[in-house]
Specification:
The protein has about 70 residues and is mainly α. The protein has one domain (about 1-10, about 25-70). The chain contains 3 helices and no strands. Helix 2 runs antiparallel to helix 3 (about 50-65).
């Protein structure tokens, strides 16, 4: 378990809520907005963690956005 387990669980709950909202509103752009907001929150959370974890998050975001290596 990491020191940030509570924060991570809260972020996952927020992701579920954003996804439910996007489905109920039938608005695919809400998925993207939610992902970007959550990715930023996770990056900030990991700022205090080691660089390896942060690099993994950055790579995952780049893969999702399709701009790897830019």
């Amino acid at each position: 378990m990491t020191a940030h387990t509570g924060e991570i669980k809260e972020l996952l709950q927020q992701a579920r809520e954003h996804a439910d909202s996007a489905v109920s509103q039938n608005d695919p752009l809400r998925y993207r907005e939610a992902f970007q907001a959550l990715a930023l929150a996770v990056e900030k959370l990991l700022d205090a963690s080691d660089d390896h974890q942060r690099d993994q998050v950055v790579r995952a975001v780049e893969e999702f956005q399709g701009d790897e290596g830019i």
